[in-house]
Every structure is written in C-alpha cells, then in structure tokens.
Amino acid sequence: MKLDKSSMLLYVVTDRTWLGDNSLIDQVEQTLKAGASFVQLREKEMDFEEFCDEAKKIKQITDAYKIPFVINDNIEVALAVNADGVHVGQSDMNAKDVRKLIGTDKILGVSVQTVDQAIAAEKSGADYIGVGAVFSTSTKLDADSVSYDTLKNICESVSIPIVAIGGINESNILKLKGSGIDGVAVISAIFAKPDIFKATSALRLLCEELVK
Q: Which residues participate in catalysis according to the annotation?
C-alpha cells in the first residue's frame, strides 16, 4: 500500500486495556468510521496463532477502508498475514535488517527520539518515523520524553513523514502545532474513551487544525 503524509494524520495504536465487553475488531472499525487514517496492531502477550488470527480480521477492515495497517515489532506476524508493514523501536531489530526481511513493497515505520536516530532511520529505509514520547504517557512508562524543539529539529532533518506519539490527547494536541509533524499517534485518547467513534471524530478535527 502506498504511504503518503496524509496517512499520518490520525494514527491509532491498539491497546486491549480498555476492551471491556467490546472486541478489538469492533473498536478498530469505530475509529476508521470516524476518520482514523492508519492502524498499528500492538500485542505484547499473544501467541503467534492468536496474534495472526486477530491481525487477519483487522486487516480485512483496514483493507475495506483502504487504510494502511502495520504490526508493532512482530515481523513474523506481519509477513504471515500480509500486513501492509511493520513498526519497530530502537531496541528492536535494526531498521536496515527489517527492510531486508520485509522487502521493498512493505511499509517500515521506526520509533526515534533524536535527530541522529531519525536520519539513520531514513537512511536505513524507513518510510515514516514515530517521535516520542512528546508528553508523559501511562501506556509506556519507560518512554523518554522528547521536547518540542527536538521534535521540530527532527522534522527539519528528514524528508519522510513524521508522526508524534506519547500522551497526546484533545487537550494538548495543538501544543504541537508548528512543529512540522504530519499527524499524531494515539492510544488512550481514543481507546480509553467510552465512545470511541466520538473521541476519534473530535481528534480528527483537531489533527486537521494541527497540520494546517
């Protein structure tokens, strides 16, 4: 699937923490109906078969909406289900090695915290980068914070699309305006809300304001 900067506008990362009586598949579909532009499936505890089964179901939905779908960290699952790509962090496999495994047609996203990491990711074949955490976050307690100035410098240092992540919600999102990012990645700002469709719709409007 072709990736462009508009795909970064409202990037959702799944989290099972707030499922309740709902299914993750239903929650993801609600975000897509409301304007999410990208989906990353993040599972830390599932075994391979279970992960693949869930990923296939979500891919059916993202394909229907023509939205990019990547798997967090797990290259084997990404290839097994023919996901659009994979997203890796700095502590995971080197981006250059990931690119060799997934080929040239798949999307490769890389998490970075510094200008040097961003430049290295682009040189290694990343299609986009995620920068964070830009605010403190309950989802990833060990995440180092990235200042607004560093975020801006990263945006000026690379030519690939950039999404900011980490503690972003409807109250602080516009503090990132002017940084040069192409959108935001969110988790709890959508999945922790009782009305996922409503939360996604509100964030979509704010994202459009953010990148104006």
A: 42, 111, 140
d(CA 204, CA 183): 10
Contact 186, 22 (CB under 8 A): no
Say how far residue 29 (Cα) sits from the centre of its chain.
16
Res. 197 pLDDT band, cuts 50 70 90: very high
How many CB atoms neighbour CB 185 within 10 A? Answer: 25
5: nearest Cα among 81, 86, 68: 68
Question: Residue 50 in contact with residue 79, Cβ under 8 Å?
Answer: no
Residue 73 token pair: 């960290």
- Asked if the peptide bond before residue 192 counts as cis, ω within 30 degrees of 0, the response is no
- Tell which phi-psi region holds residue 92, choosing left (phi > 0), alpha (psi between -120 and 50) or beta: beta
- Domain spans of the chain? 5-210
Rounded to two decimals, the pTM is: 0.96
Q: What does the pLDDT look like over 148-162, one tens digit per residue? A: 999 999 999 999 999
Fold of 5-210: TIM Barrel (3.20.20)
Residue type for 82, please? N
